[in-house]
């Protein structure tokens, strides 16, 4: 699969099948993430790959209402970073941007390998921190729910979520998010 195919086919499916998680798979995903560009190559991203019990079950308890579909995850990847681990140029702080790029590389690698890597923001950061035993100075940025796509729709999904499983949610038109030469958007 080439990059264009991985981008086109990547979806945040919520209907998941369990899969075996191996250290080789984790190293493939982490290796792809490590190749993302970052300011002065500081690589501020940190990941905790949670797949063994009881850690995985405990981490699932941090999920917000509405994310019960993620209980079928075979792995949950915690994404962390710290502002001071990356460039700070005046009021520009790069750690979130650079970590986000590494997450995108990880997600595209997952797609290439035939997996779903669905990032979510619906979780209790304090519970996550306690389960993974992360340092206080690291910001928990996102969780990535990981598994294989199940074509059978998860009955826990809302009607909108079920529709999103069947058809990609609409994307904004070019004119809604992009300009040529000068800022043109009506906010």
From TrEMBL:
Its cofactor is FMN. InterPro entries: Nitroreductase (IPR029479), Nitroreductase-like (IPR000415). SUPFAM superfamilies: FMN-dependent nitroreductase-like. Pfam families: Nitroreductase. Keywords: Flavoprotein, FMN, Oxidoreductase. Residues 7-53, 65-148 form the Nitroreductase domain. One of its GO terms (molecular function) is oxidoreductase activity. The keyword Cell wall biogenesis/degradation does not apply. Belongs to the nitroreductase family. PANTHER family: NAD(P)H NITROREDUCTASE YDGI-RELATED, NITROREDUCTASE. This is Nitroreductase. The lineage of its organism: Bacteria, Pseudomonadati, Campylobacterota, Desulfurellia, Desulfurellales.
